[in-house]
Amino acid sequence: MGDIVRRKWMTMMDVHAGVVERVYGGPVGLIWEMLAGEEMECETGDLAERAGIGTGSRVLALLPGAGGAARRLSRKYGATVIGLVPVPQVVEEAVRRTEAAGLAAKVDFQQGNAIEMSFHDGIFDVVWGEDAWCYVVDRDRMVGEIYRVLKPGGVLAFTDWVQTGPMSDDEWHTPETFRIFPHLETVESYANILERNGFAVTGRGEVPGDPALWVRELRESLRQGRDSIIGLIGEEACDDARQALGLWEKAAGRGLVGRVWLLARRP
Description:
It contains twelve helices and seven strands. The protein has helices at 3-12, 27-36, 45-50, 68-77, 88-100, 139-149, 169-173, 176-179, 187-196, 211-224, 226-233, 235-253, and strands at residues 58-62, 80-85, 107-111, 124-130, 150-163, 200-206, 257-265. Strands 3-2-1-4-5-7-6 form a seven-stranded mixed β-sheet.
């Protein structure tokens, strides 16, 4: 990665305890939204059903990017959804896409901080997340806030990238160059965070599908959309992303990183 781009990305990571890295407001966010788009989320229908999401469910989609998950939960299951997004320009994009989809009456978005939410206690039936909480530094504090805003008996359901095999320091820092995680949990450490914040873990497992193939498809999307992406972020950053996605794919293929789901209930 070029020194200028690296310094810019790392500067965006210099945040106080627990705040989601504002990478979505810079080159990484632009790349990620262009590559993943509306179909970033996958293989999560079973989890939504396990969580009991349906007509009348009040759902908080926590850190949903441009809102694909929030729209899908409303469109497919009939839920009313609020998405909490940390970056203003991503809130604007989420609202634009939601209005275009005709879902503005059921899906709304607010700018906010995952570790210090402005919502009242006990107002949500479900808190939902997809592959985004790996950006949060203070996950204990975030989970404590999730517990607070859920109703008694409410459900927490999420997927995320985790470390699935031992990595050396060099291996850890190399695949991190594109996703820029502060650190990765394991499925066990995630379960521990939930339990020490009062949740009862009711299920966990691997997200179906090959994570390396999923990243490979993103890399192919980058190749196909290269000209448009270069127009936004420049050739150097685009090429850095392509190389880093290849490294992340390799890490997934070696079983070092993967995607998991967890389900928990507030007593």
